[in-house]
TrEMBL record:
UniProt-listed InterPro entries: Sec-1-like_dom1, Sec-1-like_dom3a, Sec1-like, Sec1-like_dom2, Sec1-like_sf
Superkingdom of the source species: Eukaryota
Biological process (GO), any one: vesicle-mediated transport
UniProt cross-references to Pfam families, sorted A to Z: Sec1 (PF00995)
Biased composition (Basic and acidic residues): 419-442
Listed name of the protein: Syntaxin-binding protein 1
Gene source species: Geodia barretti
Lineage: Eukaryota, Metazoa, Porifera, Demospongiae, Heteroscleromorpha
SUPFAM superfamilies associated with the record: Sec1/munc18-like (SM) proteins
Region (Disordered): 407-486
Family to which this protein belongs: Belongs to the STXBP/unc-18/SEC1 family.
Amino acid sequence: MHDVMSKGITLVEGLEKSKEPQLAREAIYIMWPSEESLTKMLMDFDESFRVYKAAHVFLLDRLPPVLVTKLQQSPAKKYIRSLKESYIGFLPKESRVFTLNFPDSFRLFFSPGSAGKGEMKTRIADQLATLCAFLGEFPTIRCNKAVAGVEDIAHELYKRLEDFKMQSPSFATDEGKNKSELIILDRGFDVVSPLVHELTYQAMVYDLLGIKRDVYSYEATTEGGGKHSREVILDESDPLWVELRHKFISDVIGEVREMVKGFADSKSKSPTASYDMSVKKLHQMIKEVPQYQKELSKLARHFSLAETCDKKLKAGMFDLCKAEQDLATGESETGEKIDSAMNLTTPILFDRKIGVYEKVRLMMLQLLFSEGEAKEGFAKLIQRVEIPPKERSSILNLACLGHPSVEGREGRGNGIEEQSQRAEEEGEGRRREIRRLSLDTHHSRHHGVSAVTEVGGIGSEGQTGREEQQLAPLRKMSRSHASSYL
C-alpha cells in the first residue's frame, strides 16, 4: 500500500464494494477479465448512478470475444479512456512462489463428472502461459503421465507457447542459458504433505494463528507506554521474516532471544551473560527505550508470533504432531516400524482438546497409511469420533485423488459423487504408486533417500521420444530435526 500511495493514489477499493460518487476523479481498474468483473465495472458507469469521471482498465489476461462484444455494446464504453491487456494471469506471493488464484480448480479437477473441466484446463494453461511469457521462458514441460488431466494441461500450455513464439520470434531466444523445466503435478502426487503439521515458523503461523491475506494482528506498545491493536503484513518487505520463516519454531525462538540480548547488550555498558525474555519484558524494554521502538517492535512481533505457536504446540498438539510424523514416515522417531495405525491414533481422536479439523487430518493420514484396509473398522471409528457429515465427506473423498475410500471404490453409501470410469480404470495400482511416492518423500527425511517418479516430456523432445525422466522429490524435509524438537 505504501508503494501505491507514493504514486499519488489515495484510495484503493475492492471491485465488489459499494462506492460513493466521485465524479471529479478518474478510476484505475485492475481486474481479471471475467464476466462478473466486467459487469461490476460497467455498473460503476451506469447513467443512473455514475461513480467516476472516467476509467482506465488494466486486464490481467486477454478479454474473451464475447466480453469484447459486451463492452462494445455497453453505454458505459464512452467513459473508458484506456484499456490494456497485460497478460499476467498469476499472482506473485513471494519471490519464488506464485498462485493462479483459482481455488475452484481443485474441485473441478478431482470431482468426478463435474462440469467445466475443459474450461478449467484451458484457463490454467492460459495462466501458466502468461507466467512463462512474463519470465521470458519457453521451458521443457514435464508432467505426470499417469494423470490424463495433467497431461491435457501440459499439451495445451505447449500449444499456447508455440503460438506465442510464432507471433513473437524474439521470445525466449537467449542461447546462453540452460533451458528451464516446468513440472506439472496434481495434488494426488503428494497427499501427505498438506495433512502433516509442519513445525517451521511460516507454516505454523499460517496453520495455527488464522492469518488471512498475510496480515497478523497483535497488541503493540506505544512510546508513552500505552497499548493498541496493530496489523502488520507478513511478506518479504520484512527482512527478519524472510530470514526466519523456513526455520524450525524452536530455532526461531532461540534466535530472536539472542537478537534481543545482542540488542540490549549493544545499548548497555555491562552486557549480561544470559537474558530471560518474555513478551511482557520486551514490551517493558520498548517503554524504557522509546528511541529504539522501531527495532524492538520488529523483534517483539516475531517473538510473540513464535511464542504463541510454541504454546499451542505444547498445549495439546505435541502427541498429534508426533503421530502425524509416524504415520507419514511409517516408522517412529527411533526407527521402529509402525504396525498399527489404529493404536497410534485412537487416544488422540478421542481427546476432547483436539479439534475436529485436526482429527480429520489425522484420520486421512491413517487411511493413507493403511491403504484402505480394515474399512469396516475405520467407518465405525468415524462414527464413534463423531465427525460431522461435511468433514466425513472430506475423508471419503480421498478416493477422488486416487486413494482408497473407506466404503469401496464404487463409493457405496458414502455420500460423495460416484467415482468416474477413469478412476475405476486406474485402480489400485495408481493408488499404491501415489501413496508410495508420498510416503517415500517423507521417508527420505530420515534416511536421505530421494524418491523418484517418471514424468513425460511435452514438446519437441517429448514428441520424438517421450523419454521417461527421473524426478527428485520437490520437497525434502529433515525428520531428525523436527523430531529433536518434539
